[in-house]
Each structure stands twice: as structure tokens, then as C-alpha cells.
Amino acid sequence: MRCDDVETFIDLAVDGVLPDEAKQRLERHLLRCGRCAHRLKALEVARTMVRQAVPKAEPSPAYLERAQARLQAHFESLFPKTEPPSPTQRLLPFLQDDTTNKSSH
Question: Which of 19, 27, 34, 37 is nearest to 1 (CA)?
């Protein structure tokens, strides 16, 4: 991992949402690069100070409902529902659920 790549991952690492593989790569880089290790530590300290200084805001139930509806609509626009296969259509074995597999054997 290069120092330029660390910029992409450092925020995710501080927020604790970096995937395991990327986290391991970042940790290996930080062992070799004092500059990036210092940047990560400085960001952790700054985020901790901000979190302590600003009370956590809880969204209202109405806001959560609206946001969830918007996300659902966006998701459905990206992945439209498909019609279920007809009973005469054959499914590939890896697409069949367990009950279908058991009845066909």
C-alpha cells in the first residue's frame, strides 16, 4: 500500500468500517510508515475530541421513516423486482433452495 492509498482508507479505519483485508494492509503500511501512522493517530484524536464536544443527535422517527422510504425507492430503481420463474422453467442447481434440491433427488 502506498501513502496515497492510505488517504482513501484512513477515514474508514477511524470510523471502524474498513473491511478486514484492507485493515490488515493498512496496519502493515502503518508499521513501516511513521508519517501515515502519525496522520492516523492525529485523526483519531481529532475525531475523539469532536465526538466529546458535540452531543450525539438522534434523528426523529419521522425522519428515519422518510429516509428509509427514499433508500428503498432508490434501491428498487437500481434493482427492479423480477418475475418469479414459471413452474416449467428449470433452475440451475446452485439457484435452487434446499427444499427444491431435496425433492429433486
Answer: 27
